[in-house]
Amino acid sequence: DAGVIQSPRHEVTEMGQEVTLRCKPISGHDYLFWYRQTMMRGLELLIYFNNNVPIDDSGMPEDRFSAKMPNASFSTLKIQPSEPRDSAVYFCASSLFDEQFFGPGTRLTVL
Amino acid sequence: DAKTTQPPSMDCAEGRAANLPCNHSTISGNEYVYWYRQIHSQGPQYIIHGLKNNETNEMASLIITEDRKSSTLILPHATLRDTAVYYCIVRPQTGANSKLTFGKGITLSVRP
């Protein structure tokens, strides 16, 4: 298996633009997690899904952030409009039992 | 969730055992201890977890004290590739439906 796949790996955009991050979980995994990592706040859970249904989105910072999982093999995290403080590395992870498998991350820079 | 306390950093010599401590004095009976690590610029990687018995796998050993208030992750023969941030996490239950709450972790530097 290729592991968790995230795209793009790097994204540079300007303030106010819409940004869409993509994730393909490991086949057969029924949980999907979105995390954000910054120097100031460390690694934070934003939202997670079970069987494509959002379970807990309490970590989503504000209404500018939204996440969807239209099917078991694809999820998106959208930021609209983006702001410089959204600059971070965004990780997607998936799991079936106890172990979460993380993707390589998307490094987002908002100018 | 119970909180964990880890020293900010430590180092060890290549080939020697690395013993990474973690305090979790408020851990409750149904909470497990998990260890993940994050090598620079990569996503976190699961290492090991346990409830009260010592655990060993191909990567590491986990020693949990009898009162479960602290634990030690042991990398038996550290290599340069083990240089990473190691996170000790206490989790309410097994199963993917419980969150992982990452703290600051401990930065392990393995020197040649």
Descriptive labels:
heterodimer; A: 111 residues; mainly beta; 7-stranded mixed beta sheet; 4-stranded antiparallel beta sheet; B: 112 residues; 5-stranded mixed beta sheet; 9 strands; 45% strand
Tell me about this structure.
- The complex is a heterodimer of chains A (111) and B (112).
- Helices cover 0% and strands 57% of the residues of chain A.
- By secondary structure, chain A is an all-beta fold.
- In chain A, the strands form 2 sheets. In chain A, strands 2, 4, 5, 6, 9, 10 and 11 form a 7-stranded mixed beta sheet that branches. In chain A, strands 1-3-8-7 form a 4-stranded antiparallel beta sheet, with no helix packed on it.
- Chain A starts with a strand and ends with a strand.
- The mean pLDDT of chain A is 95.
- Chain B is mostly beta strands.
- Helix content of chain B is 0%, strand content 45%.
- Chain B contains no helices and 9 strands.
- In chain B, the strands form 2 sheets. Chain B has a 5-stranded mixed beta sheet, with no helix packed on it. In chain B, strands 2-7-6-5 form a 4-stranded antiparallel beta sheet, with no helix packed on it.
- The mean pLDDT of chain B is 92.
- At the A-B interface, strand 5, strand 9 and strand 10 of A face strand 4 of B.
